[in-house]
Design brief:
D-amino Acid Aminotransferase, Chain A, domain 1; 2 domains; nine-stranded mixed sheet; binds 2-OXO-4-methylpentanoic acid
């Protein structure tokens, strides 16, 4: 892929964030973005790195009316050795295409997806914060641009990549958050969009999210759409329950749960650290029973943005169920420490391909 580079004069570059300890999540965006366009006649074309700026989108663009949009989220970490590493980007490339298929959007070559990331992150290296717990968040997305109000799949699309230096997703940092278990609303149902990474799933979550915050909770823990009985996920994270400090249980992927990269990594890492890992249906009754009797010793969420986030309480049908006295438990801590050590290059990757060193344009013959 030959990428066109529209370089900004040095004096037009944005000032960097001042303090990497107060980055929060996606408050700042870098100087450049990557774009590529699709038409049925030409396929994917015109890869360009250009200044981060607004799009011109027609009021009749399909995405604005029928939400034909998908996205991904991954991170670049600056290691203790100064090297920049991406974490399992091939998983995002594959999931992007599964989401595209579900939303009737064109396939995006995995190589082009990865190359766009390497090229933009390489260009924007100065934005990568280096203290532990911070990273450069990478947001690839694709949206429909046909101008019509007929309900159909678009024939033209834009792919775009933007970057943001980030700290922890939750203001709590690596401290337990409270979750609100919604018994009224549904994030996704059988046969719906639940396992696709598309904005529509997040739009569906907003009202319950607002109610969660009114009740002092950070996020919603969703139950299945048919019976409101089985645990699904948290929207910004998948969820794990630790039984007796040694068994990790997470809901089995059933079509309405997002197949998280961190979820998969924790299953593999957990097993390699000696925990028993189980993917199965788990009901809210079993969870409440387990917290009440003490057999569930910890609960935590997993996500690219959220990393591993301990859960300190569940609010369900007006009652609060406190987990591990609202403290970070040893299993969450152990998994978090190991995951970060891998991501920041402190220990070798336990599985081939988990960390991918950033490749500069010399290797790729880009016109940057
Ligand atoms: C991520 O973890 O990258 C996500 O996409 C969750 C998010 C919607 C903040």
């Amino acid at each position: 892929m030959r990428i066109k580079f529209q370089q900004l004069p040095e004096q037009n570059l944005k000032p960097l964030f001042e303090d990497s300890n107060t980055l929060g999540f996606c408050k700042y965006f870098t100087d450049y973005m990557f774009t590529m366009n699709y038409t049925e006649e030409d396929g994917w074309h015109s890869p360009t790195i250009k200044p981060f700026t607004s799009f011109e989108v027609a009021p009749s663009s399909l995405v604005l009316h029928y939400a034909q949009e998908i996205f991904e989220g991954l991170k670049a970490f600056k290691g203790v050795d100064g090297k920049i590493r991406l974490f399992r980007p091939d998983m995002n490339a594959k999931r992007f295409n599964r989401s595209a298929e579900r939303l009737c959007m064109p396939n995006f070559l995995e190589n082009d997806f990865l190359e766009s990331i390497h090229a933009l992150v390489y260009t924007e290296q100065r934005w990568i914060p280096s203290n532990k717990g911070t990273a450069l968040y990478i947001r690839p997305f694709m949206f429909a641009t046909d101008e019509t109000l007929g309900v159909r799949a678009s024939s033209a699309y834009t792919y775009c990549l933007i970057l943001s230096p980030v700290g922890p997703y939750y203001q709590e940092g690596f401290n337990p958050v409270s979750l609100f278990v919604s018994s009224d609303f549904t994030r996704a149902g059988k046969g719906g969009l639940g396992e696709a990474k598309t904005g529509a799933n997040y739009a569906a979550s907003l009202l319950a999210g607002k109610m969660a915050r009114q009740q002092g909770c950070a996020q919603v823990l969703w139950l299945d759409g048919a019976e409101h009985r089985f645990i699904e996920e948290v929207g910004a994270m998948n969820i794990f329950f630790v039984f007796d400090e040694k068994t990790l249980v997470t809901p089995v992927l059933n079509g309405s749960i997002l197949p998280g990269v961190t979820r998969d990594s924790v299953l593999k890492l957990g097993e390699s650290l000696g925990y028993k890992v189980v993917e199965r249906q788990i009901s809210i009754d079993e969870v409440i029973g387990g917290i009440t009797t003490g057999s569930i010793t910890e609960v935590f969420g997993t996500g690219t943005a959220a990393s591993i986030s301990p859960v300190g309480s569940l609010k369900y049908l007006d009652a609060d169920y406190i987990v591990n006295s609202r403290k970070v438990g040893p299993v969450s801590q152990n998994l978090y420490d190991n995951l970060l050590k891998i991501q920041y290059g402190e220990i070798p990757e336990p599985f081939p391909g988990w960390t991918v060193e950033l490749e500069g344009p010399e290797d790729k013959a880009l016109s940057i």
